[in-house]
Amino acid sequence: SLINPDNTIRSNIPDINIPTNVPFHQFMFEICDIYKDELSQEEFLTGRRYTYNQIKEKSIKVASALHRLGYLKGDVIIAFSSNHIDFTILMLACAANGIWFTAANPTYTPEELSRQLNHSGTKAVFTIAPLAGIVQAALDNKEFPNKVKKLFVFGEAPGFQPFQTLLDDDGKAFPDVDINPTEDVFTLPYSSGTTGLPKGVMLTHYNCMVNCIQIQTSTQVTPDDRCLGLLPLYHIYGMIVVQFAVLYAGASVIYLPKFEPESFLRCLQDRQITRAHLVPPLVVFLAKHPLVDKFDLKSLKKVYCGAAPLGPELTEEFLKRQHRGAMLSQGFGMTETGPVTNLEVTGRPGSVGPMVANTLGKIVDLETNKILGPGVSGEFCVKGPQVMKGYYNNKQATDEMIDPDGWLHTGDIGYISNDGFVYIQDRLKELIKYKGSQVAPAELEALLLGHPDIQDVAVIGVPDKKSGELPKAFVVKKPGSKVTEQEIIQFVEERVSPIKRLRGGVQFIDGIPKTPSGKILRKNLKAKY
Ligand code: AYL
Questions:
Q1: Which of 149, 208, 281, 508 has the greatest CB tally within 10 Å of its CB?
Q2: What is the ipTM of this complex?
């Protein structure tokens, strides 16, 4: 059994000895030296491709160029872009300089982007030509001032320095920066965690290297595998699990810039994808959409699903259709855990599996925080070397999530089976998951409180078969106001990226249920409506 005497659970995989002195770029360069001329990644729509050798060579050149431009350890740069193969080059070049790499959702509005630029203290923006206008507008936002001094573009855009000029560097100024992998930050993705607004998640070089090794130890990707690169690289799932864990295995990633039914299926078929990392709505698509029958997907052997709940019914429906023997594995994780803590690879529908290597789990009572035995529901907590260093500039939020013994409280409700497999049942925290993407209620509530007709408001997620959850607002109108539901939906739509729209609708109520201290009682709202 994987259950320890104290009711914590361990992995079915024996502990791995992972060195603490290897910076992330060096970890990847060593992999490049092994797989040399093998394909590392390719863009499906353009055919642009890099071998492992090219990944290393180009990363060295860009690292050298960034050093010449004066970037120093601890500076922050941001990628605001859809998926393409230079994303990896930029990330490794940042790692070599000790630069913190952050990334923003390419569907962000100027205001959403300006918040992240402001909060992270970003000094340089790397974007694509179609988003140049959004970047300019974000920089002009006086409400959220920024420290951005330089603009780069993958491709060409007026006022932006082409990324190609960095690739043209001779590599001779490759930096000699002292990096402490267990302390120094490699990447700073944004997550709202269990409460409040999005926060910068400080993941160290070591956190990210560890997670690549943990994932690969469970999934056993082979150098012959071709993996789908559809999930966005700005989000931790794409950034670490799809991009780097697959490279670590010596396999290749075929990137798509966005989901579109035809190109998605054509990519799976024509590039003979063997493993696809997906989120539940994409599994729904493969399980149900009529178009799927028009394509030959027999190369697809393994599908991984994570970031939101995947029920056993859907798993079975998917497997029935993929009668040629594809296997569906569910994973669990969070941005704050680099991300993966659990992977189910044996075929147990509904479970997120045992813990990955070097990681402990436990279920605790919601009130007493006491550890619970198998079969009893409570809050799922995890502890391992992939757990973040903390939230950037937010010790309070960090301390609320990670206790002094190193246990991270996920804010998710679940239980452990008698043999140490984890089942996630519900979410205790505020976070809404729309198609696997985070929507922070606090962000929408703050926006709505700025509406002249709104007295008070609460936002929750309402269940939806196709997308998981939809954001819905409960609104208390100001006395005498004639504002309509549609006007409020539109007010939000004009100001946020598409994932955050109030697709669950607006409902007017007389008062928001709150605790004496003023905290919104979301459970009451959920139960009542
Ligand atoms: P974030 N089942 C139910 N809820 C899940 C699951 C799952 N399998 N995976 C993630 N969540 C929810 O930071 C849960 O509420 O990272 C968790 O606290 O955007 C929250 O999503 C974290 O949201 C994997 C497995 C990547 C997971 C991921 C993590 C990505 C989501 C690859 O194999």
A1: 208
A2: 0.99
